[in-house]
Amino acid sequence: MDVFVANEQDIPVDHDRLSTLAAHTLQSEDVDDEAELSVLFVTPEHMRRLNSHFAGDDYATDVLSFPMLEGDPDDDDGPVLLGDVVVCPAVAERNAQKAGQPLTRELDMLVVHGTLHLLGYDHQGSQDRSEMERRQRDILASFERVDS
Predict the structure, then answer these.
(1) Are 14 and 48 in contact, with CB atoms under 8 Å apart?
(2) Rounded distance, CA 93 to CA 33, Å?
(3) Which of 4, 6, 60, 13 is nearest to 36 (CA)?
């Protein structure tokens, strides 16, 4: 599994930890070892532009996912490009403060959340939301056990 991380903003993020967490999420979901995804950390202005262009919402959000799913998951001739997870640490920091938790915990949750979206999870209906939240909790808990 390859996880590419790029940081285009000033808030420090632990690239290695978050890359490992994204890979752990893919492994937890039994995604093929040849899968690739990227995680990008951006400024609020960049996130606002993305959110406005792709979702029609003119504000910076904490995470967006852009599925690609290029390549055939059943084809052994190359990687499956899952897509991009885009995170805005400045928005995540505000959310973490409101929730009374560290930014690292919020970023962990957003990376898992965004990665699950690439894999087809959503939270439009209450049943889907419950399933996605359960998977997030399970993956974060299992990562904390591995990461300790």
Answers:
(1) no
(2) 32
(3) 4
DSSP conformation class of 136: H
Quickly list DSSP for 61-100: -SEEEEEEEES-TT-TTS-EEEEEEEE-HHHHHHHHHHHT
Element housing 2 (H / E): strand 2-7
Single out the residue of 35, 12, 14 nearest to residue 23, CA to CA.
35
Instruction: Retrieve residue 146's tokens.
Output: 């591995």
C-alpha to C-alpha distance for 16 and 111, rounded to whole angstroms: 12
> In this predicted model, what pLDDT tens digit does every residue of 57-93 receive, in sequence order?
999 999 999 998 654 445 555 568 899 999 999 999 9
Give the per-residue pLDDT at 96: 97
Please report which residue ranges of the chain form alpha helices under DSSP H.
15-28, 44-55, 89-99, 103-118, 126-147
Compute CA distances 18 → 90, 125, 127, 135, whole Å.
Answer: 16, 28, 28, 17
pTM for the whole structure: 0.90
Q: List the structure tokens of 123.
A: 């939270």
